[in-house]
């Protein structure tokens, strides 16, 4: 038996010593790793540093009165006010007088100025020169000027969309863009209309609806 052991040591001894060395190294490494873990577990955790000295974040709320460009309300001009609105439409006569030429869009009537027969798109109301001509309905002045054929003329667009043309005036008392009430003076009676200058002093009045002449006789009660 002893001889077998000696023979085994001679033939396998090298490998046995190598195995023991590896086992020894592994054991030492394991013990060292375990000791280091225990040391870490016993080390106290460091507390965070005091943040009292840290600068606070600026939480200043911007002034809402300042716009993106930095201008204040005092530097911004106020919004423009809307144009005055006119009121509901109600009609009245432009003046009192005799109708000397009636509305006749289809049947020609005789013209004492031109000495011929032609249609008549409005009514002619005779009155003394200088008599005030009144606005027949609330509206806005579109034209206030001298026309080559119609003479001194005022055109008013009313609140219902209809348009009045006051022609053959002597004087004009309104300006373009002016807001008028019913009964406001727009001018005076004259005889400035080239197509009717052979007539007596009168107002030539036309009422238009959707770009077509309409009969204004109802204004005079007829």
Description of the structure:
The protein is of the alpha+beta class. It contains one helix and twelve strands; from the N terminus they run αββββββββββββ. It folds into two domains: 1-37; 98-220, Distorted Sandwich (Glucose Permease (Domain IIA)), CATH 2.70.70.10. The termini are far apart.
Overall mean pLDDT score? 78
The CATH superfamily title of the largest domain: Glucose Permease (Domain IIA)
Basic shape: rod-shaped
Low-confidence stretches: 53-57, 64-69, 83-88
Largest sheet: 10 strands, antiparallel
In whole angstroms, how far apart are the ends? 158 Å
The overall strand count is: 12
Rg measurement, Å: 54 Å
| Helix count from the secondary structure assignment | 1
Portion in strands: 25-35%
CATH topology of the largest domain: Glucose Permease (Domain IIA)
Can you identify the CATH class of the largest domain? Mainly Beta
- The name of the CATH architecture of the largest domain is Distorted Sandwich
Structural category:
alpha+beta
- Helix share bin: 10-25%
Question: What is the string of SSEs from the N terminus onward?
Answer: HEEEEEEEEEEEE
Total domain count: 2
Brief overview, please?
It is built from one helix and twelve strands; from the N terminus they run αββββββββββββ.
Keywords, separated by commas or semicolons:
1 helix; rod-shaped; single chain; Glucose Permease (Domain IIA); ten-stranded antiparallel β-sheet; alpha+beta; 222 residues; two-stranded antiparallel sheet; 2 domains
Fold topology:
Elements: H1 2-42, E1 98-101, E2 104-111, E3 116-120, E4 123-126, E5 132-134, E6 139-147, E7 151-158, E8 163-172, E9 179-180, E10 185-189, E11 202-209, E12 212-214
């Amino acid at each position: 038996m002893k001889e077998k052991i000696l023979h085994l040591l001679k033939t396998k001894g090298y490998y046995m010593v190598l195995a023991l060395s590896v086992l020894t190294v592994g054991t030492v490494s394991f013990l060292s790793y375990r000791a280091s873990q225990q040391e870490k577990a016993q080390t106290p955790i460091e507390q965070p540093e005091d943040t009292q000295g840290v600068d606070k974040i600026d939480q200043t709320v911007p002034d809402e009165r300042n716009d993106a460009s930095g201008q204040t309300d005092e530097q911004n001009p106020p919004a423009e006010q809307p144009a005055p609105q006119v009121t509901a439409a109600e009609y009245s006569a432009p003046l009192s007088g005799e109708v000397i030429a009636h509305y006749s869009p289809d049947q020609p009537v005789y013209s004492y100025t031109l000495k011929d027969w032609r249609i008549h798109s409005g009514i002619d109301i005779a009155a003394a020169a200088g008599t005030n001509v009144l606005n027949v309905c609330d509206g806005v002045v579109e034209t206030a000027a001298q026309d080559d054929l119609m003479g001194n003329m005022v055109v008013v667009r009313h609140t219902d969309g209809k348009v009045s043309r006051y022609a053959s005036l002597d004087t004009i008392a309104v300006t373009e863009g002016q807001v008028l009430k019913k009964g406001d003076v727009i001018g005076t009676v004259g005889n400035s209309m080239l197509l009717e200058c052979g007539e007596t002093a009168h107002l030539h009045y036309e009422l238009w609806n959707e770009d077509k002449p309409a009969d204004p006789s109802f204004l005079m009660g007829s």
